[in-house]
Specification:
Oligomer: homodimer
CATH topology of the largest domain in chain A: Dihydrodipicolinate Reductase, domain 2
Shape of chain A: elongated
CATH architecture of the largest domain in chain A: 2-Layer Sandwich
Strand content of chain A: 25-35%
Largest sheet of chain A: 12 strands, mixed
Number of helices of chain A: 14
CATH class of the largest domain in chain A: Alpha Beta
Number of strands of chain A: 18
Number of domains of chain A: 3
Helix content of chain A: 25-40%
Radius of gyration of chain A: 25 Å
Largest interface: A-B, 57 and 57 residues
CATH superfamily of the largest domain in chain A: Dihydrodipicolinate Reductase, domain 2
Amino acid sequence: MTEMRTLKVALLGCGNVGAQVARILIDDAETLASRAGARLELSGIAVRNPDARRDVELPHELFTTDADALVKDADLVIELMGGIEPARTLILTAIRHGACVVTGNKALLAQDGPTLYEEADKAGVQLSYEAAVAGAIPILRPIRDSLSGDRITRVLGIVNGTTNFILDQMDTTGAQFTDALAEAQRLGYAEADPTADVEGHDAAAKAAILASLSFHTRFALEDVFCEGISSVTASDIAAAKDAGFVIKLLAIAEKLADPDGHGTAGVSVRVHPTLLPREHPLAAVHGAFNAVFIEAENAGELMFYGQGAGGTPTASAVLGDLVSAARRIVLGGPGRTETTTGHVPALPIDAAVTSYYIGLDVADQPGVLARIAQLFAEHGVSIEIMRQTIHRDSAAKAESAELRIVTHRASEAALAATVEAVKGLDIINSVTSVLRVEGV
Amino acid sequence: MTEMRTLKVALLGCGNVGAQVARILIDDAETLASRAGARLELSGIAVRNPDARRDVELPHELFTTDADALVKDADLVIELMGGIEPARTLILTAIRHGACVVTGNKALLAQDGPTLYEEADKAGVQLSYEAAVAGAIPILRPIRDSLSGDRITRVLGIVNGTTNFILDQMDTTGAQFTDALAEAQRLGYAEADPTADVEGHDAAAKAAILASLSFHTRFALEDVFCEGISSVTASDIAAAKDAGFVIKLLAIAEKLADPDGHGTAGVSVRVHPTLLPREHPLAAVHGAFNAVFIEAENAGELMFYGQGAGGTPTASAVLGDLVSAARRIVLGGPGRTETTTGHVPALPIDAAVTSYYIGLDVADQPGVLARIAQLFAEHGVSIEIMRQTIHRDSAAKAESAELRIVTHRASEAALAATVEAVKGLDIINSVTSVLRVEGV
């Protein structure tokens, strides 16, 4: 082999993903060099406490606590510490010292991405973050490059493996949320404190990143409406199943036309439990797998499927970014990160337009259906399917009926007003569920 | 907007895809310019007979018969003529004149790709061909870039929409091949002469391209074993269905270890009808859709799904390549096409190792199962499932039995020898089907 350049790689953080990245950099050094056109030398691994990492089978002399010095001496910096600080400061230091940066830090990107992209552009270095969304699945590069000649209209993503595992368990076994969560924790799919996953915060950060790339506009975390899955019940799942649907936690970003139907009013970015028809490609995504479904004007429907988490799969995405950045350095190309250039407004959740599934516990009296249908009509919400199941208790006395309604597409605002009004009816015992429906 | 550079785009060919590419270049000029950082000016469309294109709503003055002159004056050349010549000569002219080339010509790439890649490298221009495999689905860029830090072990692709439509029809309706083909022709999914699709030649060209990119080695069309779907019967489909499988025409490229189990002996590249378990993600790919399923050492299982053909979807892939190439020109980056660098041998079909489904019509006599099982054992082919169904004719006389066998993984050579030996048994009426099985 002819003389080959060596590029110094600094690794920040040595958790689950970081340890795998380090292992692959060492074990597969030759393959990576042939792909990148340069040797990728792991110059150090910055951690808070090197002794805590003695369990990992990595040369101990690589560990350091001086992340700042490590970064300043590197050609390529991989940030896998997570959290806002010191990750943010170290990435900015790397950029200002001319290093390309690869990160998987979705929280930082969702909060502060625009600043980082701008700094990278100014310095002429690449900032890549394929690992931040949907783990091993190549999704950001296809959106940015492969679809650069098209117009994306909608993105629906299963981007959180923990919640998909829980909902899939509930769907398969009929379990309640708390039991499915416990099972997920037992198997290591959910953390001891599962809040960030089950309340949708993790998915919301990814939704902001996906929306920004898809619509060439910078969306921040506060632009994302977010509702988790902790209030989804076994009976919601059963009712959905019965009606031919499955419930998934979706990250959704979609262009909405302005009310008069011309042009784009803006983009609705949201995370919430969603009913999907069982024949929809996303309905077949089981367990902790992730998938992103994209609708584009010319390409039509596309789906990207794979493992959304885990040390080794996520390390694959990190190394793909690393090799691509190294190639660019070797070939002397521009480091410019493709940034967002547009200015489509983020719409509030009230502007979202979707179908709804509404479950009602109603009195079993004549005329109930007509009164409810009348109320929906008054609020401009059109009903697609209405289905009543009558329950009689063993004594055949106190009678109630279960009413399930699927609406045509309506605005959140109209739906909210309708549900409020329904609650006020004397014939309503309770509103048992209100869920959004996509893919119909 | 500040002063923006203009890049001249020459379009060769104006069929289904070409006409859509031209339309989008004109209609979406502003969006494309903002993405590319340069105006993309369609400088001409080379066709054999301009008058034949009067039906297309494109400015007639764009049409020319002088493809050579058009190419020599362009910054970017889109080749959508298909076939070997004059496409090959025009692409080489474009490259030598310093133009980046975007093509969807799988036949040319499968036959002559290496020459073209080398010429593009030498000239420092990009040669992109996302549209050549699986239409709108971004698959080549993810393999080349996103998985550049990983090692792909296997690729299974549904890369021909016509055959997937036909097999899906047969599976859904129980139709025979000829009826499903007629339906596909009626709906425009199959051509009047369907040979290239149904005999697997189209899929074989794509398999060669996928294998070359996935295994960093140049595979040619003659390295691909190819078997089409014209001999798949309704009863094959029914038997597969009954056993929990679906039959798909797959393009397969997989690394095989050498017989002693160490290292890689080579890559088996093949196209044939294949049984897949119904729960496999590829089994859910219906109609004329395409999908490519990839297994990589670190990333695990990935799948890419979308429309594999059609003017507008394929145009999306062409324009993605065009905008990416234009960006590179504007930013002054290297034009080097990522080429294959390895030297893994292509293995003959005899070396392929897979499971098999074998259907036999046997005499209903005691001891038949034992004799057949013994014969398989003698040839080193291990049986996983053996299932016998006895048919009695109305007069309850002439009795025969249907025997269905699924083997464990075995080599093609061992299987072929076994089937030959089975045919020689006096208790065998006929071998009704021999099909390969993947994904188990």
